[in-house]
Amino acid sequence: MYFNFDFLLETVIKITAGIVCGFVLGIERKSHNHVIGMRTLILICVSSTLLSILSSFVTDGAKNGTGINGDPSRITAGVISGIGFLGGGAIMRQGMNIKGLTSAAIIWTAASLGLAIGAGLYIPTGVVLAAVVLLLLLLERVEERLFPAGRSKKLHIQFNNESLDMKAIKKVIETHGFIVTDLNMSRDFFDRRTELFYSVKAPREEDFSSLVDDLSKLGNLDGFSITD
Question: Parallel, antiparallel, or unpaired: how do β-strands 92-94 and 149-159 relate?
């Protein structure tokens, strides 16, 4: 069986398909500047494919009496357990935000595609790969439209006067696409300085100069910062 031409040809096709799937998923991640890229996902997908081939080989060996015998489900279970560690490593915390959840899910998907390819399920693999890439591309735009304020940030505003219209300040902030989730305030009576610390969901735009201009109309704006 080791040198059977049909077996070798099928193995090459499966491994090639695994490389293609990992490459496509890696291109999608790299196009969004994520840490998980082509090499990582190709290795995951190809390794899962090879282990799935090994699982089938063990099963066939047990049936054909080639001396190789074992439980093929243990190999698949081992792949799934190992992928959990890789997925956990892709998840990072940056300030108030959690990043890498989608990349962790794609790692899981790459392993699943590899196992399916190793089992010879080419059509289901192709359908899932096309659906995953299409959903990743389309749903990002849908999320940006439905939930424009998606990232958690800290907004620090400082005024050099005590009397402020807090409702007007909040209205200006929300007019610029922010969602206010919390507010802390600090007031220095000696210097007559008021500091506002907002927890907000921020829009994806990077230029907040118009927000600064509008806030400056509500008082003597002395400081502005927005951080993760």
Answer: unpaired
Helix, strand, or coil here: 159?
strand
The length of the chain is: 228
Q: How far apart are the first and last CA of the chain?
A: 58
Could you give the angle at which helices 209-216 and 166-175 cross, rounded to 10 degrees? 160
Per the CB < 8 A criterion, the answer to whether 2 and 64 are in contact is no
Model confidence pLDDT, tens digit, residues 110-166:
888 888 888 788 888 888 888 888 877 777 776 666 655 567 788 899 988 777 888
CB 45 within 8 A of CB 116: no
Which CATH code fits 149-227?
3.30.70.260
Best CA proximity match to 193, nearest among 216, 225, 223? 223
Domain with CATH 3.30.70.260 in the chain: 149-227
* Structure tokens belonging to residue 32: 């969004």
- In three-state secondary structure terms, 37 is coil
Contact 14, 116 (CB under 8 A): no
Whether the Cβ atoms of residue 17 and residue 49 lie closer than 8 Å to each other: yes
Q: Which residue has the tokens 């693999």?
A: 125
Could you tell me which residue, 177 or 169, shows the higher pLDDT? 169
Name the amino acid, one letter, at 129. L
- The Cβ of residue 12 has, within 10 Å, a number of other Cβ atoms equal to 10
